Every structure is written in structure tokens, then in C-alpha cells.
């Protein structure tokens, strides 16, 4: 079953729409700019001691106002960054996540600015922040690693929503990617012997991608995988006729567009350092001698990974039906041999 791209939620659509609205953008930036100017102006007046009634609190108020001015500047920069992100052609769900991440970073920067300006002793502030960061690092190790894993998925793109992947022992189609975890719709697993969906959802922390290999069966440049089916015939069979028949029947069962991807594979191989791989025909038919004195015929073809089970079943039925029409050219291994 195909997995559609994750549709943006109403909240995501509303957030992205606001970022595209020039009036809202001008209003927000103007507000931040006015706030920064007011804070700078009040800081100047305090430093020339216009407000004498504040007494000994002038240093604290001066630090708060200057920190607020710097924070408004940070919000202005953040708003420009969010606008640029919203203008990209990325998936709306991904744009929303990047915008939320930008806002989170902005809040952290603002908190750091206030802590820095309100603490008169920079050394003490640095030590305090270091200790707090160390404690939070131990306490929130997995969530922080998962957040970094999400950022890696967004930037590096080892997989996206709709891809069929394997991470460690988890196999599934990606249905959702969040800040801390990824959700898969499992295929195969311990409930199925085929690669059909099992009906279970797998949710794993994003940090898992740093600890395991990630197998992606839905690579955009070549979204197909190789499959093979084995048939067992006797030495008396006409191997040339069997090969030609199996290739023809298999090709009829495959989607017509699949054959076009063979050339794509040739092009991909030509662009890499891989040598001595020549794909001359498709599908392939290989012959091997089995230990029980019969010939193993291996039919090799490429297929959409999400349709491989049904395609395999169709090919088996079609090939057997075609071969048994000519008992004089092919004979199968006896039962129980």
C-alpha cells in the first residue's frame, strides 16, 4: 500500500500563511524595531540620570532594558530567517518544523542574553550556565540527541515521509517525522512472512539513526529494488527456451515504466566509481546447479518495493502457467526430491 505525503495540519497551514503575509511581517518587524528603539532610548536616559527616583536600581533596570533591546534585534533576525524558510519549495510540514526550530533557537538566545546582562559577574554566569548545561545534558540526553537527529534528517535527508526504510530491526513506511521521534507503518516484521504491511505502527527516537544503519528502499534517483525468484527444473529441459520464456513472461507482468529505469540504473552506475557492471538485458535469468541434481533457475528483476509481494505472486503464476504448456521442453523436479 502506498503512503501519501504527510498532509500539513491546519495549524501548520496557518503558520506558513502568516509568514507569507507581508502586512503581518511589516507589523511584527515594526513592533520589534520600535521596542528596540524605546529600550535604547530609556537606557540612554537612565545613564545620564534623568530618572533619579529609581535610586540604586538604575544598574539593574539599565541591564534589563539593554537586554530587551538586544532581544528585539534577535526577534527581527529570526523573523527574516523564518520568511526565507517559508519561501523555499520544501514540504509544508518540513517548513513548519524548521520555523518552529528557528523560534526555539531564538528563545534560547533571548534567555542567554538576559542571563548574561543581569549577572554582573561574567565568570560566575559562565560557570552557572556550564553547570546547568551539564545537568540538563545528562537529564535530557535522549531527547537532545533525538532533536539533533531530527535536524540531521531535515538537513541530510536520509529519508522522508512516504519512503520505505529499515533502521536497525525496524522495517516500515515513514508516515510521520517529528522533533523527537519518527513513526513507521511496519511491513514484514514478526507477524508477516512477506513484505506487506503488518498493520502495526513503530515509533522510534530520532537518535536511533546515529546508532544504526539506515536502509532506504525509496531512493529518489532509483526508487526500485532488485528481487529474484527461484524455479527448479531437470537437466533434460531446454534451458535456452526456458530463459527466453521466463524473461518474456516476467516482462509482461511488470509495469511498463520499470524497463525505463534500467537505463536510469546504467546512468547512475556510469556516474560512480563502480566498474565492471554491465546491464545488457532485463530481466536476468541465471542458472545454478543444485546439490540434489536439478537446475535452479533464478529470475532477477526490478520492482517497486511496495509492490514486490503482489508482483512476485503474479510472476510465479504466469511463469508456471507458461512453462507447463510445453512439457516436451521443460520438466520440473519430482516432488520430494
Automatic annotation (TrEMBL):
Domain Mechanosensitive ion channel MscS: 143-218
SUPFAM superfamilies assigned to the protein according to its UniProt record, in alphabetical order: Mechanosensitive channel protein MscS (YggB), transmembrane region, Sm-like ribonucleoproteins
InterPro entries in UniProt: LSM_dom_sf, MscS_archaea/bacteria_type, MscS_beta-dom_sf, MscS_channel_2nd, MscS_channel_TM-2
Entry keyword Transmembrane: yes
Gene Ontology cellular-component terms listed: membrane
Compartment(s) of residence: Membrane
Superkingdom of origin: Bacteria
This protein's record includes keyword Transmembrane helix: yes
Protein's membrane topology: Multi-pass membrane protein
Gene3D superfamilies: 1.10.287.1260, 2.30.30.60
Record key words, sorted: Membrane, Transmembrane, Transmembrane helix
Pfam (any one): MS_channel_2nd
Signal peptide feature range: none
Transmembrane segments: 32-58, 64-82, 94-118, 130-154
A GO MF term: mechanosensitive monoatomic ion channel activity
Family membership noted in the UniProt record: Belongs to the MscS (TC 1.A.23) family.
Protein name in UniProt: Small-conductance mechanosensitive channel
Natural source organism: Pedobacter duraquae
